[in-house]
Design goal:
Distance between the termini: 40 Å
Largest sheet: 2 strands, antiparallel
Number of helices: 5
Bound molecules: zinc ion
Helix content: 55-70%
Structural class: mainly alpha
Radius of gyration: 14 Å
Strand order of the largest sheet: 1-2
Length: 91
């Protein structure tokens, strides 16, 4: 068993969509994690108990409507990180 945060799964889902449409934005691992982190911290968690492993949770998640505020927060996070990517500052 595990606890799955649907909000985080939705954030990754939305992030994939947004980055696919904005090819000019860096989508390296560092940037993607920074974006997901920012977005998920601004959203309410939505935990469920998953009895059958990760694949089941993902399939079930896809049948649920992604709340619109998830996409809103992801777009904001992409905008913020892409304007000031952490990986450039650390170099
Ligand atoms: Zn990057």
């Amino acid at each position: 068993m595990e606890l799955v945060n649907y909000t985080l799964l939705w954030v990754w889902e939305a992030l994939d969509k947004v980055l696919k449409e904005k090819k000019e934005i860096c989508s390296c691992e560092q940037c993607r994690y920074d974006m997901a982190c920012l977005a998920v911290n601004n959203l309410k968690p939505n935990y469920v108990v998953n009895r059958q492993g990760g694949v089941y949770a993902r399939t079930k998640m896809l049948s649920q409507q992604m709340p619109t505020d998830v996409l809103t927060e992801v777009v904001k996070a992409v905008d913020k990180v892409s304007k000031n990517p952490y990986h450039f500052r650390e170099d």
